[in-house]
Amino acid sequence: MAKLESVIREAIARGARRQIRVAVTPLRREVVRLRRKVVELQGTLTTLRRSANGWKRFMEAAPVIPHVSEEEAKTARLSPRLITSLRRRLGLSQVALARLVGVSAPAVAHWEGGGATPTGQNRANLVALRRVGKREVKELLSRQFKKTASRVSRLHMRPTERLRKRSRG
Predict the structure, then answer these.
(1) 70-168: which CATH number, 1.10.238.10, 1.10.260.40, 1.10.150.240, 1.10.600.10?
(2) Residue 45 has what pLDDT?
(3) How far is Cα 86 from Cα 125, in angstroms, rounded to an integer?
(4) Of 8, 62, 72, 103, whose CB neighbour count within 10 A is largest?
(5) What long-range pairs does 82-85 form, CB within 8 A, spacing at least 24?
(6) Residue 20 phi/psi, 5° resolution?
(7) Region 129-153: what's the mean pLDDT?
(8) Would you say 96 and 31 are in contact if contact means Cβ atoms under 8 Å apart?
(9) pLDDT value at residue 166
(10) What are 101-136's pLDDT values in tens digits?
């Protein structure tokens, strides 16, 4: 009787294992397929993140002032009075205009006083500023300020603080 009972138990266990195998095998295949898909998607996500970071760096490094052709910069009139009126229209101080153009504040004072005239890239930058409004100028200055502030704050740190900040990322 004990032998018959163990034979029946083994037959039931075998049948149950077979049914479980039939149900689990497709699920295992699906899990393997989904794991591969997750790995593929993680790779795609990593690539997209790198691309987004690249675009972010590109946009942050984009010229602060819109581009102007050389010909347009050469033919544009830039008198001391026009430079002063441009600065006032944009609501800028001489220092702020100098920061946007990429020169020193005394250079702007010389331009406005008639002691010198902007040339080359500085002239092109001034001509390009004609196309910019007050809002854009504020945004450009804030972007420049953020860059400068982060550099300045790092310069004022103690060397040990700089090392700690670098190691944190």
Answers:
(1) 1.10.260.40
(2) 96
(3) 12
(4) 103
(5) 83/108, 83/111, 83/112, 83/118, 83/126, 84/112
(6) -65, -45
(7) 73
(8) no
(9) 56
(10) 888 889 999 999 988 888 888 888 888 888 888 888
Residue 20 CA from chain centroid, whole number: 52
d(CA 72, CA 87): 20
Domain boundary assignment for the chain:
1-62, 70-168
Q: Print the SS3 string covering the chain.
A: CHHHHHHHHHHHHHHHHHHHHHHHHHHHHHHHHHHHHHHHHHHHHHHHHHHHHHHHHHHHHCCCCCCCCHHHHHHCCCCHHHHHHHHHHCCCCHHHHHHHHCCCHHHHHHHHHCCCCCCHHHHHHHHHHCCCCHHHHHHHHHHHHHHHHHHHHHHCCCHHHHHHHHHHC
CB 108 within 8 A of CB 98: yes
Query: Is 100:92 a contact under the CB 8 Å cutoff?
Result: yes
